[in-house]
What does this fold into?
Amino acid sequence: MSRVAKKPIALPKGVELNVQDESISAKGPKGTLSVAKPAAIQVKVEDGTAVFTTEDAALIPLTGTLRAILANMVKGVSEGFERKLELVGVGYRASMQGKDLNLSLGFSHPVVFPAPEGITIATPSQTEIVVTGADKQRVGEVAAKIRGFRPPEPYKGKGVKYAGEVIIRKEAKKA
It folds into this structure.
């Protein structure tokens, strides 16, 4: 088996893992998530840990992938995931209006982005956006969609960027 699949998942307090024939669901204080499970992969929950086994050699890579997805689900329902975005540019602002994110990104019109179900969007300041949720993939997808409205450009660095992202700058054309 792969190294990733051999590693057991420790279940924190308050997290339940429900293994059925075709799916696995994790329930915790931040919500409930589920994922489909191939029939040839066995998952056993014993003493607060989940262990993966398979007999089919072709499913060994899939076992490691399923283990990684399940580890993210367990972390998501217990702690949650967070992605921070920053707005760089004169007049670039973000504000929440109910469940909708209202962005002023230098266009002739404001960009309104409705928050999907299970995702919380907050704006601690006018130039910061915080996307939180239990599902790691959905949090990253929503953050990428928001960033996609105005990706950072390489000359002045204006746009929506991830917190800590380094924008490689280009030199302007010389006369």
